[in-house]
Write a structure and sequence with these properties.
two-stranded antiparallel ribbon; disordered C terminus
């Protein structure tokens, strides 16, 4: 929803402080609820991954277990980039702009983060180079991985009128051949891999730090629809002109 300055009520400092304290109580309740939900998420049962998935990586073919590297936890971002696409999904690109800085912290905390798309590796590498990203990104092309984790859909599924997405039957008119999501896995000392969690639709939104900052800004997200204002980071006017904050042209 768009927000405008002229719709804002102007009050005294005392009235503002009273309103701010009332909001603080709600913010604290939200924090406690978030902690409770995180604990419930961590307590979810696991499912052993029985199928052998093979991915194309810059280092050659790897199994799902090998994507962990030396770590026991794996977070997979299901990036919407299908075979033959000229560019990745703008929304997925928006989210993935926030990943590179997290890698040293995640890796130190025994977590490997990898993006997976159904596009062939060469197409992934081309778009990754355009965006200037460093995070690992591999191809599931020719694998059932995307289909089994309900982020890719066949023409037959789409033609059937509904697809299984976000743990429910979703009308095909609201779907696409590729949709976003995030899945988490654990590998034990014996090398067995377990699926621990998946989230879809707006579920991965907390990874988008820009949104979290906008939520604090005076006008909030100030959008008519989810991400309707957003572009790939090299498609904004300032990016095309080469201008940035503090440049001589500003």
């Amino acid at each position: 929803m768009q927000n405008t300055p002229d719709a804002r009520k102007i009050v005294s400092r005392e009235e503002w402080l009273a309103a701010r304290k009332a909001l603080l109580a709600r913010e604290k309740a939200e924090t406690r609820l978030r902690d409770e939900v995180a604990a419930a998420r961590a307590a979810l049962p696991w499912v052993k991954v029985e199928k052998d998935y093979v991915f194309e990586t810059p280092q050659g073919k790897k199994s799902l277990g090998e994507l962990f590297g030396t770590r026991s936890q794996l977070v997979v971002y299901h990036f919407m980039l299908g075979p033959g696409w000229e560019a990745g999904c703008p929304g997925c690109s928006f989210l993935c702009d926030h990943l590179d800085g997290t890698l040293p912290h995640l890796n130190n905390h025994d977590v490997t983060l990898v993006a997976v798309s159904r596009a062939p590796l060469a197409e992934i590498e081309r778009y990754k180079k355009r965006m200037g990203w460093k995070f690992p990104w591999v191809s599931s092309h020719g694998s059932d991985f995307n289909y089994d984790y309900h982020v890719s859909f066949t023409p037959e599924e789409l033609a059937s009128g509904a697809v299984f997405y976000n743990f429910t039957e979703t009308p095909a008119e609201n779907a696409n051949d590729e949709l976003p999501g995030l899945s988490c896995f654990y590998r034990d000392d014996a090398g067995d891999v377990f699926h621990t969690y998946s989230v879809y639709a707006r579920g991965p939104e907390p990874l988008i730090g820009t949104y979290m900052i906008l939520d604090l800004a005076p006008l909030g997200r100030n959008e008519e629809g989810t991400m309707n204002w957003m572009r790939r980071h090299d498609e904004y006017e300032d990016a095309r002109s080469g201008n940035c904050c503090g440049s001589a042209a500003d």
